[in-house]
Amino acid sequence: MVVGNIILRLRGSLEFKCQLDSTDVPHVQKVISRTFEALGSQVKAESLVLSLSSSPVFLWPNKGGHATAGEISPNRPCKDLQQLIQTDDQESSRKKSAKKDKNNPTAGIINLTLMTEVTEPGVLSAPTLLRGSKKHHLLQTTLPMDCVVSVLSSESISVVCGTLVGALCSQLGDMEKVALRHMKGTALLIPQPFHFLLPAPVGLVTVVYPAGVPDSQLETQRKELHSLFELPDDRPYLRRANALHFPDEPYKDGYLRNPHVHLNHPALENGKPYLVQGVYSYHHYMQDRVDDNGWGCAYRSLQTICSWFQQQGYVERAVPSHKEIQQALVEVGDKQGSFLGSRQWIGSIEVAAVLDQLLGVTSKIMFVSQGSELASKGRELANHFLSEGTPIMIGGGVLAHTILGVAWSETTGQIRYLILDPHYTGAEDLQVITDKGWCGWKGPEFWDQNAYYNLCLPQRPKTI
Amino acid sequence: MSKVTFKITLTSDPRLPYKVLSVPESTPFTAVLKFAAEEFKVPAATSAIITNGESVTLWNVFLKHGSELRIIPRDRVGGRGVGTDRSSSSFSSKTQ
């Protein structure tokens, strides 16, 4: 997001309703196209109204951006709209006392809702009823409109309104294409918009996917888009899981995401940090009503890694529970049946086996005969974060940890490890977790210098 | 009956001793691990075989990467202050 830009997000429902006199495909397609065309006209009509969320303001974009609130005139810059938004009084305490928050969340987003004026002053007329006795199908559904535009905060309201209406029309066009492409007989799949933040210079794009069709069946569509946006063809960017998560929407599952971004990275002479790429969730002791204090740390590190693969779009399955992890190990023959339901410890080899069995992910194992040797693994770890960027599980000296990054200086040999500690037993309190070092940078003395360690380095599957 | 020959190194020993072993192709890989562990006098239950960085549990991984294997001690980890003492011995026994 470029500084000085505001994102406007417009959401709402448009009713899609049409009458089909026959079920033959060309007729159905023609009617659907006509209905989308009518919606396009509806969106360009003067009766379209945008409601500014959490404020008393309404805008008429097709009347030159005329608004209800007196102080908003169409020529004012759109950033003035932000001042009218009533923010939540109960700011979560972690926002107030959080460290220098690099991802300034709500500041740059304006949410709007789509509405239509239903009544209008007009000439009195008598309603007409037409009655026909022919059999027909009624096709009716609600289209979930969700448009996002990025504009300069100095842009005038009237121009921004025009941009939003344009985005709506364009989305209707995309929805029509998707609806026609994925139709099955008279069943219409609802087209759903997803927003993605692609690497520069592409930026923010919106893609429409048909509801109910899993990602695995949409590979052709993704290949076309990868080609259009010149994206690499060996890692996912456009799976539903890759969709942009807007900072002003809390995650519903309650896990913390990427607590490490709130830390200050160590400044090493001639060194730099090499970090995990993408998003993971922090899994640790006592979560999910499982009391695994004292035995579950490797399981939790494995869950963190699974959450990474899920959120980067490689797998659709949910993060496995302790039971599912144990079940997988029995299935591959690494453990006997008596292992199920036990509190037995596992290590990196088991983590690699489960990643393979449940997620189809292969891992590299790095064996280090003494903890002191880890100090010399800077280059290898840095290369891992550059090429794969996946979280690393490390086991040894009776403890498991997750390595999220390394800061290393080629010239001085100084090294620091970014550690996510699964032994934390408290609540999802970002403040405590960062202050007390449950997610934090550690030096080489953190490792047991005499114990041997195994590291599990998960490899990204080459797929989109 | 054809045999598979490979070189296997004990990485937990700083002298990196190795042996060249030959087993019938039909041997299940778990038996190979057991055999190799016995040769080196380390416990099979707490060992694992890796090659080219990948953990080997099946012949197909072995065949992909060639015939240099390494036998490593497994880490078994769970938490603080539970079970094993943190001695500097190379092989920690399983707890619980």
TrEMBL record, chain A:
UFSP2 second domain mapped to chain residues: 33-251
Keyword flag Cytoplasm: no
Keywords: Hydrolase, Protease, Thiol protease, Ubl conjugation pathway
Record GO terms (molecular function): deUFMylase activity
Record-annotated UFSP1/2/DUB catalytic domain positions: 273-456
Assigned GO CC terms: endoplasmic reticulum; nucleus
Cited Pfam families: Peptidase_C78, UfSP2_N
GO biological process, one term: proteolysis
Region (Disordered): 85-105
Protein family according to the UniProt entry: Belongs to the peptidase C78 family.
PANTHER family referenced in this protein's UniProt entry, alphabetically: UFM1-SPECIFIC PROTEASE 2 (PTHR48153)
Protein name: Ufm1-specific protease 2
Lineage, broadest ranks: Eukaryota, Metazoa, Chordata, Craniata, Vertebrata
From TrEMBL, chain B:
Presence of keyword Ubl conjugation: yes
GO biological process: protein K69-linked ufmylation
Region described as Disordered: 74-96
Low complexity compositional bias, start-end: 84-96
InterPro entries reported in the protein's UniProt record: Ubiquitin-like_domsf, UFM1
Cellular component per GO, a single term: cytoplasm
UniProt cross-references to Pfam families, sorted A to Z: Ufm1
Keywords assigned by UniProt, alphabetized: Isopeptide bond, Ubl conjugation, Ubl conjugation pathway
Taxonomy, superkingdom: Eukaryota
Assembly and oligomerization: Interacts with UBA5. Interacts with UFC1.
Known role: Ubiquitin-like modifier which can be covalently attached via an isopeptide bond to lysine residues of substrate proteins as a monomer or a lysine-linked polymer. The so-called ufmylation, requires the UFM1-activating E1 enzyme UBA5, the UFM1-conjugating E2 enzyme UFC1, and the UFM1-ligase E3 enzyme UFL1. Ufmylation is involved in various processes, such as ribosome recycling, response to DNA damage, transcription or reticulophagy (also called ER-phagy) induced in response to endoplasmic reticulum stress.
Protein family according to the UniProt entry: Belongs to the UFM1 family.
Family annotation (PANTHER family): UBIQUITIN-FOLD MODIFIER 1
Protein name (database record): Ubiquitin-fold modifier 1
